[in-house]
TrEMBL record:
Region (Disordered): 680-733
Domain (Integral membrane protein YccS N-terminal): residue spans on this chain: 82-189
Protein's cellular compartments: Membrane
UniProt keyword list: Membrane, Transmembrane, Transmembrane helix
Regions that span the bilayer: 26-45, 123-143, 149-168, 367-391, 411-429, 436-453, 459-476, 488-508
Cellular compartments per GO CC: membrane
Domain called Integral membrane bound transporter: residue spans: 377-500
Biased composition (Basic and acidic residues): 684-704
Name of this protein: Uncharacterized protein
Broad class of where this protein is predominantly found: membrane
Length: 733
C-alpha cells in the first residue's frame, strides 16, 4: 500500500461514525462527573482549581471508556491514582529542567512498556504523561504539589462514585461478549447448511473467554447465566463442523444431508434464542419447531459418525437452553476463570514487561519512541517563542501507538479535529465572551460529545476534545488569544514529530509475517498432535491438553490475523512473501485447524479401543511441524516426510471403533501439503498440488515398497540439490 493510499484510508476511518457503537447514557454520566467537579470547585475554590480538577475528572472519565472487563469504577479510581501520582512528581521536578527531563524520560518509557499489559493500560498510562507535562507550568512547592494531586485524584473519585450510584446495564459488556459468541456459533451453523466446509473466525470465542475471567469479587456477584454457556458453545462448534462436513459426517447429497441441514437450522435458531436471552437478561424462548427437530434427532436417517454428532448436538443445545436461564443449576456450579485483582496485577505486569525487553519487541520499540518524542517535544516546545509549548509533547504522546496505522490515523485525525474544534470554540469565545460558569458549561457539553463519539469517528471526537480544552482554559482565566492561536501549529508539530519518530524507528509488521506464520504453524501442530494422540489413549485425560493447545493455537492465529491486517495498511512490502502466498498459507493453516477440530468432535472416551498408529502419527506431526516452523522462518519450504511415512505405516491397520481418526489424519497431511504449495517450490522440486489431488482421489494408499521407492527417489533429489533446501524466494518487494 502506498503512503498516499494509506493516508486516504486513515482520513475516511477517522470521519466514520457508527451509531451502534454509541453509548449515550454512559457518556452522559461521564459528562455529569466533569460537571460535578467543575461546579464544586467553582463554588468552593477558584476557577484555576476547577480547571485542574476538571482535567482529572475528564481523564478518569476517558479511562472508563477503554476496553476492559474490570468494573468501570475501578478503572476510574486507577486512572485517578495514576494521574495524581504523575501530577505530584511533575510538581516536584518541574522547577528543575534537567531532573524533570530525566523524570519525563523514565515515566514515558514506563508508560510505553505498559502496553505489555494491554491497550487499556497503555492508553491510561499515556494520559498520565499529559498531566505531568501540563503541571510544569504551575507553582512547584511540595504543599501545592500535594494539593494539586489531591484535586486531580478527586476527579477520579467523583467519576467512580457516579458509576457506583448510577450503574448502567450492569454486566452489559460481559453479556454482550457471551451473546456474540453464541450468535457467532449460530451464524456458523447457518453457513454450514450451504457451505459444509465454511470457516469459523475464533475472535468472538476469544473475546468471550477474556470476559469470562473475573476477579473473586466479580465471581461472587456475576449472574448465573454468564457461567456456563461459553463452554457449551466451545463444544458445539466442532460437533457442528463434523456433522456438516461430508468427509466425516453426512454425505453431500441425499436424505442424510437433508436431515443435517434441518439440524443445523435448528441449532442456529436455538443458539440465537440463547444469545438474545443472555444479552437482555430474559428467559430463553427457543422456537418450538427447532426444539422438536432436536428431539427427533435419534431417528435412523443419519448413520455412523454423523448420527453420533447429531445426538451430541441435541444434548448440548438442550443444555444451552437450561444454562442460559438465570436459575440454571449447571451454570451456578461452573468454575470461574480467575482474573487477578488490581494489586495482584502488579507482578503480572512486571513479568509481562520483562518479557518484552527484547530487541525485536514492538512494545519496547514503542516505549523508546514514546520517551524520545516526549523529551524532544518538551525541549522543542520550550525553545519556540509561542508559549504553552507543552502542547507539542502532549500531542506526540497521545497519538503515538505501537503500530503504524493507529499512529498515523490518530495524528491526522487529531490535527484535523483540533483545527475544527479550536476554530469553533474560538468563534464562540469571541462572540459570547463567556464567564467562568458559562465556560464551564460549554466545556462539559464538549466533553459529553467527545465521550459519545469516543469509540467511533476519532477525528470528530477530537474536535470536541479541542473545544473542551479551549473552554476549560478560558474558565481558568487564560485568554483565548494566549493559547488558541498557536495551539494549531503546536499540535501539527507534535503530530509530525510522532509520525517522524515512527519512520525513524519503525516496528513494521510486514517483515514479521513469516515469524507469525511459523508460530501459528507450530501451535497448530501441537493442537493437532494432542487431538490425534488422544485416540491412542482413550480416557487418558487428554481433554485438558487438547484445550490448552487449542487456546494457544487461537492466540497465534489471532496474532497472525492482526499482523496480516496491519501489513495491508503499511507502506512497505515483504521481501519474499506475496499477498497471494500469504492468503493461501492462511487458508492451508485454517484447513489444518479444521481437520483437527473435526477429530476433536469425536474424542474417544473410556472403554473405546485405542488406535496405536495414532500415537506414531501424532509424534511425527509434532516433530514435522516444529521443524517446518524453523524452515518457514528461514524462508525454506517445509516438508512432511515423517507425517507421510506415519500415514503410510497406518495402511491396513485396524482403526478401532472410531472410523474418523484415519480420515482426519489424511486431511491433516493434505492441509500441510497445501501449505508447502502456498509457500513456493518444495525442497524436492515436485508438484505438490498434483500429489495432494492424487492422494484425495485414490481409494488406496501406495504399497509400502512403492512408498520406499518414492522416498529413495526423494533422497536422490535432495542429494542433487545439496542440503535439500528450496532456492531463496524471489524478491517481490
Amino acid at each position: 500500500m502506498t503512503w498516499l493510499r494509506a493516508l486516504g484510508l486513515i482520513v475516511r476511518s477517522g470521519l466514520t461514525i457508527e451509531r451502534t457503537r454509541l453509548e449515550p447514557l454512559v457518556a452522559l454520566r461521564a459528562a455529569a462527573g466533569v460537571a460535578t467537579v467543575i461546579g464544586l470547585a467553582l463554588w468552593l475554590a477558584s476557577p484555576a482549581h476547577a480547571a485542574s480538577a476538571a482535567f482529572g475528572a475528564f481523564s478518569a472519565g476517558t479511562a472508563t471508556f477503554q476496553r476492559s472487563w474490570r468494573p468501570r469504577k475501578v478503572l476510574a479510581l486507577a486512572a485517578g491514582v495514576g494521574l495524581a501520582l504523575s501530577t505530584f512528581l511533575g510538581y516536584l521536578a518541574g522547577a528543575h529542567p534537567v531532573p524533570f527531563l530525566l523524570l519525563l524520560a523514565v515515566w514515558s518509557f514506563g508508560a510505553g512498556m505498559a502496553w505489555a499489559a494491554g491497550s487499556t493500560a497503555g492508553i491510561v498510562a499515556a494520559t498520565t504523561i499529559g498531566i505531568m507535562l501540563v503541571t510544569i507550568t504551575l507553582p512547584t512547592t511540595v504543599v501545592q504539589a500535594l494539593e494539586q494531586a489531591a484535586v486531580i485524584a478527586f476527579g477520579g473519585v467523583v467519576q467512580a462514585t457516579l458509576i457506583l450510584l448510577f450503574p448502567i446495564r450492569r454486566w452489559g459488556a460481559h453479556r454482550d461478549a457471551l451473546a456474540c459468541a453464541l450468535a457467532a456459533v449460530a451464524d456458523y451453523a447457518r453457513r454450514l447448511r450451504h457451505d459444509p466446509v465454511a470457516p469459523f473466525a475464533p475472535e468472538p470465542m476469544m473475546t468471550a473467554r477474556d470476559a469470562a475471567a473475573v476477579t473473586p469479587w466479580q465471581a461472587r456477584r456475576r449472574p448465573a447465566a454468564l457461567h456456563g454457556p461459553r463452554g457449551l458453545a466451545e463444544r458445539i462448534r466442532p460437533v457442528l463442523a463434523s456433522l456438516a462436513d461430508p468427509r466425516v459426517g453426512a454425505p453431500a447429497e441425499g436424505p442424510e444431508r437433508d436431515r443435517a441441514r434441518e439440524l443445523l437450522k435448528a441449532a442456529g435458531e436455538v443458539l440465537d434464542a440463547a444469545a438474545h436471552s443472555i444479552r437482555r437478561g430474559t428467559p430463553v424462548r427457543a422456537p418450538s419447531e427447532a426444539m422438536e427437530a432436536l428431539r427427533s434427532g435419534e431417528d435412523e436417517v443419519l448413520r455412523g459418525p454423523a448420527r453420533l454428532a447429531a445426538v451430541r448436538l441435541s444434548d448440548l443445545l438442550r443444555e444451552v437452553v437450561e444454562t442460559a436461564d438465570s436459575g440454571g443449576t449447571h451454570a451456578a456450579n461452573a468454575p470461574a476463570l480467575v482474573r487477578p485483582t488490581m494489586f495482584r496485577m502488579v507482578p503480572v505486569v512486571l513479568r509481562a514487561m520483562r518479557r518484552e525487553l527484547t530487541r525485536d519487541s514492538t512494545v519496547l520499540r514503542h516505549a523508546v519512541r514514546l520517551a524520545g518524542v516526549a523529551c524532544l517535544g518538551y525541549l522543542l516546545g520550550n525553545a519556540l517563542p509561542l508559549g504553552h509549548g507543552y502542547w507539542v509533547p502532549i500531542t506526540s504522546v497521545m497519538v503515538l501507538r505501537p503500530d503504524f496505522h493507529q499512529t498515523y490515523s490518530r495524528a491526522v485525525a487529531r490535527f484535523s479535529g483540533t483545527l475544527v474544534g479550536v476554530g469553533l470554540a474560538t468563534g464562540v469565545v469571541q462572540l459570547a465572551h463567556p464567564g467562568a460558569y458559562l465556560s464551564g458549561g460549554l466545556a462539559v457539553f464538549s466533553a459529553g460529545l467527545m465521550y459519545l463519539l469516543m469509540h467511533t469517528g476519532y477525528a470528530v471526537s477530537q474536535s470536541f476534545a479541542a473545544a473542551y480544552v479551549v473552554f476549560l482554559l478560558g474558565m481558568g482565566g487564560a485568554e483565548w488569544h494566549q493559547t488558541v492561536r498557536d495551539r494549531v501549529l503546536l499540535t501539527l508539530l507534535g503530530g509530525a514529530l510522532a509520525m517522524l519518530a515512527y519512520v525513524v524507528f519503525p516496528a513494521w509488521e510486514t517483515p514479521r509475517l513469516l515469524d507469525r506464520l511459523a508460530d501459528w504453524l507450530a501451535a497448530n501442530g501441537r493442537y493437532a498432535a494432542a487431538v490425534v494422540g488422544s485416540y491412542a489413549d482413550p480416557g487418558g485425560g487428554h481433554r485438558a491438553e487438547v484445550r490448552q493447545a487449542l487456546l494457544a493455537a487461537r492466540k497465534k492465529e489471532a496474532a497472525w490475523d492482526e499482523a496480516f491486517e496491519r501489513s495491508k495498511q503499511e507502506p512497505v512490502k515483504h521481501r519474499g512473501l506475496t499477498r497471494s502466498a500469504a492468503q493461501d498459507a492462511y487458508e492451508a493453516l485454517k484447513s489444518m485447524g479444521r481437520a483437527a477440530m473435526l477429530l476433536e468432535a469425536h474424542l474417544p472416551g473410556p472403554g473405546v479401543r485405542p488406535v496405536p498408529e495414532a500415537a506414531l502419527f501424532a509424534a511425527a506431526l509434532r516433530a514435522d511441524t516444529a521443524r517446518a516452523a524453523r524452515d518457514v522462518r528461514e524462508r525454506r519450504a517445509p516438508g512432511w516426510e515423517r507425517v507421510a511415512a506415519a500415514l503410510d505405516a497406518w495402511e491396513g491397520a485396524d482403526d478401532g471403533d472410531d472410523p474418523v481418526v484415519r480420515r482426519g489424519a489424511e486431511l491433516l497431511l493434505g492441509a500441510l501439503e497445501e501449505l508447502t504449495a502456498a509457500l513456493g517450490t518444495t525442497p524436492l522440486e515436485r508438484d505438490v498440488e498434483s500429489v495432494r489431488e492424487a492422494r484425495e482421489n485414490r481409494q488406496e494408499r501406495p504399497a509400502p515398497e512403492e512408498a520406499a521407492a518414492e522416498a529413495e527417489e526423494e533422497q536422490e533429489l535432495r542429494r542433487g540439490r545439496g542440503d535439500g533446501s528450496a532456492p531463496p524466494p524471489e524478491d517481490v518487494g
